[in-house]
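REQUEST ID: PR-0412
SUBMITTED BY: lab tech R.K.
PRIORITY: routine
TASK: structure prediction, single protein chain
INPUT:
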Amino acid sequence: MKKLFIKTHGCQMNFYDSEKMVDLLKPHGYQIDENPEDADIIVINTCHIREKAVEKTYSELGRIRDQVNLRKEKTGKKSIVAVAGCVAQAQGKEIMKRSPWVDIVVGPQSYQNLPELIAKVDPLTKNNHINIEFPTVPKFDHLKSIVTERGPSAFLTIQEGCDKFCAFCVVPYTRGAEYSRPIKSILDEAKELIDNGVKEITLLGQNVNAWHAEWTDKNVWGLGRLIKELSKIKELEFIRYTTSHPLDMDLELIEAHRDVSKLMPYLHLPIQSGSDNILRSMNRKHTVKEYIKVIEKVRHYNPNIALSGDFIVGFPGETDKDHQATLDLIKEIKYSQAYSFKYSIRPGTPAAISLNQVDESYKKSRLEEVQNILRDQQFAFNKQSINSTLKILVLKNGKKSNQYLGRSQYNQSVYFNCNEKNIIGSTVDINVTQAFQNSLTGNIINI
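STATUS: complete
OUTPUT:
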């Protein structure tokens, strides 16, 4: 067997793509190896969402070059180096210029061609290969439903790309236009995942709730209808989805949070800013009031739902008043957890050429204010779980002896001790005894 090393940066969809690359390459004689120095092929699956993520790619490639050279000195064998993902899509030629030892650059819509690209690499000559085209036939039509090893929880991409064109975002340029995967393709992969021991599926999409597809009876399904269908699979115990857009939260999906017991009571719904002025500049196409109305409706149908969000601080033109509006919104919504970042320029996006860039010192202080409130809210939410009993899917071993890690229905990490062996993949009840900033601990009640 040849050895394959994959390093993944960025979002859950990148991790899904990496899993599919493994599935693609295993029939060609590759097996996963944790050491890049031993690998016949090294794949870096990249993220382009923020500037630091891009520079992280080039730093990673510098380390990879040293590891490849070391392997060649020791064994005389040349490793194939491939860069995949969104940095590959956005900066294919730049990668080859800055890192000429890279053999393959392949975009997120073209990685189904990876076996073919690998076969073309000649270790004796410098013949780089770049495939960053947006194929006319979607990649899912080429990806056979091959599923190899998975844990008890798995990602399943159902939607890709974005038509929203937010002023800060590179997704429409790196992932392309919105594409909804056909229903049968999704159901087939879900059933194959279940057959391989998966008990929890997280449905993925850049705008996952924009997913829609026509069934054989010509009726068009939305995400809520798809979730109801998936819930009929007996062995599937937990369903999640991410990431959603406020404009695509229709009533059927909101009702699913009330009616489908297997759908976890957790919603990640980014707004990015609490200021209507900034939302207009971002081209978000909704107001703060409209966002709040969606939240109110979701909470009406499921009062126990936990809410998460995204915030960008220091977007071009953001004033102290705009920033205060964001703080006010966060205090009003009360998130269970959220992600917040300083705005960073992404080349090719409309916001990148704005003349009203915010000074870095303002970004830093504003981000601290946002994160302080979000941390307090997350800790307060976690403390509410103390003395409650949570149904947990056991995901993996913890770092300590006899320790296990699971995830609650509210997306909290839960640690507990158990002397039983081989309980990964089991569903257990945990009585929560302690709450921390990012996790819970408790005692197992039953197995």
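NOTES: The chain has a mean pLDDT of 92.
REVIEWED BY: pending
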